[in-house]
Input
Amino acid sequence: MNKIFFILNGHFSSGLGGGDMHAFAMAAELLGTKRDVRFLGANSLEPHLRQRNLHRGFISTSKKHNLSDAGLVGKARLFSNYAVRCFRTIGQLRRHCEPQDVVYATSDYWYDVLPMLFCRAKKKVMICHMLPPSLSQIIFKSRPDVTASRITSLHFWLSFKITHWLFRRVKNKKLLYVVSGMRNTFLKDGYRPNEVAFLSAGADLTVLNNIPDQPQIYDLIWIGRNHPQKGIPDLVAAIKALQERIQDLKVCLVGRLDVLKPQLAQCHFAGIVSEEEKFRLLKSSGVFVMPSHFESWGSVIAEAICAGCTVVGYDLEHYAETFPLMITTPKFKVDVLIDLLMQEIQRRRETRDKSPRQSGDQKRLDFCQEVSLQRIAQSFHTHLE
Output
């Protein structure tokens, strides 16, 4: 039985990111086929793999887990551990990988890609989840995801340049990308048309489909992390304005957001929640607000739409094509965003007693089918040939 190795060295905490969920869904589709699925990554990955019955053949590349990337010291320790994972993965692939096997780098970061390049497998596959900021965007901090220290962005940019320069020189390769607009970038960089393929980021709706419809409790919900690209000042300004205009406004905020509690004392702070609780909260809400100034894909938007929320946010680059059911406003015009949120909250309040959810809406059902990771995973195996 030929093996396929999933290299996932980027996981370092107890939580899961969109790239992790994407990799799990692709691997799950291969269970029961003629391919022997094996993951390589840190021990922090193992419980999540076991939960999804993907732990058989798991190869550990680091015993350390729950590392922090906070501050210079945290980043230095994490970078050092990434290097350990990278070298151990090279050794493990030399030991276990044969020419007829396939190796899949679940990101285009160096710690996932370099081991793949050094292994004996003739077929190599890599996925790109997000394009890095340009060097000028990093220097002048002109893209919202670039932080003040710029260290993370410089690491991202340099890693991208190195791994793609090397990967373009591989003979039997396939580069997957999750946003359709990325294709032109890769063709300009020197990839051939038959070497790149679109594979949507999608959303894992397995848990969502198991949660019954809920009565609407919250008028407005937001899910995310405290990061410059998420538009937190706009979120705070919008909630404060809506609280003044709408009587008994109920707002739910999901994520590690303790820093916002003094400013938004009347909101419900759910904190870090499980997947089950996240979808229960989404199904209990009328409007989902997305004030981000930058996003690669935005799986939480897909999740909110499929949960029945009305999604309102700024008109970022690929939203119109990717999320046709999302209601957008001109970029970063907070006043326009507030007016639209007020309008949609009032509309959902008027209809919530007549129609508990919009889960039966055909356009919504079609969208959910389109973005389902389980459906997307069915086409994954075609890129492994």
Remarks:
- Residues 242 and 342 are 7 Å apart (CA to CA).
- The two ends are 14 Å apart (CA to CA).
